[in-house]
């Protein structure tokens, strides 16, 4: 793979430019610089400098991403952890960040995800329709929620709790 020759210092300016949009993981910064044609040595040097100055921090990145996914996308811990792994965050950091959320945060996200799904799908979960229940369970599982929490959310709503309360 051939890389374009770049002027020294451009890698740093390039990294700062895409860091100005949002937090990035170390892996994202490194991959982006390599994709832009910067060599391994220059990339490693720039990434090390960004880490040293605190401009790139995987724990801060993971915390921001996890919080956003939980609250805005109603994702559960398993799906968030998978995305963090794709973005190069270690299992240790992902575990530490995800452990900071309490059960109520996760339960509220599952409730919101379920309510939104129920409204969009037109599912009726107050009756004996097993097909809708199975679909709801699969949907919440795909969003990264644990089976016990899914059963609590779906079971509670099936037994007459308010499904419109996000």
Uncertain spans, ≥5 residues at pLDDT below 50?
159-166
Number of helices: 9
Mean pLDDT: 86
Helix-residue proportion: 55-70%
Strand coverage percent:
under 5%
Instruction: Please give the number of β-strands.
Output: 0
Category by helix and strand content: mainly alpha
State the separation between the terminal residues, measured CA to CA: 50 Å
The major sheet is characterized as: none
Write down the Rg.
21 Å
What is the molecular shape? elongated
Order of helices and strands: HHHHHHHHH
What does this structure look like?
It is built from 9 helices and no strands. The radius of gyration is 21 Å and the shape is elongated. With 166 residues, it is mostly helical. Residues 159-166 have low confidence and may be disordered.
Summarize the structure.
The chain has 166 residues and is an all-alpha fold. Helix content is 67%, strand content 0%.
Keywords for this entry:
disordered C terminus; 166 residues; 9 helices; elongated; mainly alpha
Write the layout of secondary structure elements.
Blueprint: H1 10-19, H2 26-35, H3 40-52, H4 58-72, H5 77-86, H6 91-99, H7 103-121, H8 130-142, H9 147-158
